[in-house]
Write a structure and sequence with these properties.
globular, 11 strands, alpha/beta, Rossmann fold, two-stranded antiparallel ribbon, about 350 residues, seven-stranded mixed beta sheet
């Protein structure tokens, strides 16, 4: 599969990708190669990765706990302490082998340690492959608030090996698929139709769609690397989606939602708002929303839940001067930025989600 050229690095694929990685390691001649894993990727992915590695450099493994609840500064401090104890210097490098938590957190750790060491992302989940590991966003959560602390800094390379997807539970595959559905909605009807009709469980046929998804994101990031304008379109469904995810993460009486499960709700809500405030026609709104709902389980929201979720919107990163901005659609492939939405319309959007889910 052909590599994708990002701004300062390449996204490489499969066996040829490992050849590129080994060439990079030989050229860079790092003092120590640190591999960051969580307990899941340590068990299911590390051995396979090491078998493909050809290097005489010293290798050290650093393991963190899995899960979004550990994507915080406390975990970063633990990794920084291990790096110091193992004599990491500015010529060391950090390989992030894992899902979005590992690549986000590992990139942030590398950017801050000794004012910056090289890092390489090896995403092992679908979500990380098509979203988290690409585009240079690194960072951690602040309590339940998603990605509040971080910097934009590019890796030396991203290597996508779809064989790792075979280690995932079906729920994690489904979670990552939400980002591919989002790419379809903001990019083109052709890609939307391809993703809508595909089966995320058929890994052999998923590779080319993953590459297209990465290419879509890369195209946007190249035009707007620091999210001043068009890159915000990648947040379609995420304004309410992230607030929903944060709310369900902090409430002990709620079953926690995976990222894609929350974003799927956020996209259905954004579809409704796009019809109410922009020119997305009702037929397209209903068709795309039903397609999204066919992949994900229904989530129940009570009035108090919606009120709390609306309160969390003030922490969204697209906000400016106290105004909450949404990304909406005029049509599939035609996103629009900086849309203000009333609380009344948000409640109406949740009603639409509830009613559509029951049909």
């Amino acid at each position: 599969m052909q590599a994708i050229q990002a701004k300062d690095y390449k996204v490489v694929f499969g066996a040829h990708g490992y050849e590129n990685l080994n060439i990079l390691l030989k050229e860079k001649d790092y003092s120590i190669l640190f591999i960051l894993v969580d307990s899941n990727t340590h068990e299911y992915c590390l051995a396979s990765f090491l078998q493909n590695l050809e290097t005489t450099q010293t290798i050290e493994i650093i393991e963190i706990d899995p899960g979004e609840e550990f994507k915080n500064l406390e975990t970063c401090e633990g990794v920084w302490n291990v790096l110091s104890e193992l004599n990491a210097d500015r010529k060391s490098a950090l390989v992030n082998l894992g899902g979005g938590v590992v690549t986000d957190l590992g990139g942030f750790v590398a950017c801050c340690f000794k004012r910056g060491i090289d890092f390489i992302n090896i995403p092992t989940t679908l979500l990380a492959m098509v979203d988290a590991s690409v585009g240079g966003k690194t960072g951690v959560d602040l309590g339940p608030l998603k990605n509040q602390i971080g910097v934009i800094s590019n890796p030396e390379m991203v290597l996508v090996d779809t064989n790792y997807l075979g280690t995932l539970p079906i729920e994690e595959l489904r979670s990552g698929y939400a980002e591919m559905l989002k790419h379809g909605l903001i990019h083109s009807e052709s890609y939307w139709n391809a993703v809508k009709e595909a089966k995320y469980t058929e890994l052999e046929s998923l590779g080319e769609l993953i590459r297209q998804s990465i290419a879509i994101k890369n195209e946007v990031v190249l035009e707007d690397p620091f999210e001043q304008n068009i890159r915000k379109t990648l947040n379609y469904g995420h304004t309410l989606g992230h607030a929903i995810e944060s709310y369900f993460m902090e409430r002990k009486d709620k079953t926690r939602l995976l990222h894609g499960e929350a974003i799927s709700v956020g996209m259905v809500l954004a579809n409704f708002l796009s019809t109410a405030l922009r020119s997305l026609d009702k037929e397209t709104c209903n068709e795309t929303s039903k397609a999204i709902l066919s992949f994900y389980p229904y989530v129940n929201f009570e009035e108090k839940d919606i009120e709390a979720i609306i309160t969390l919107l003030k922490y969204d990163k697209k906000n400016s001067h106290g105004i909450i901005y949404f990304v909406l659609l005029d049509a599939i492939g035609k996103p629009v930025l900086n849309q203000e939405v009333s609380n009344e319309l948000i409640f109406n959007a949740f009603d639409y989600y509830k009613n559509l889910s029951k049909k």
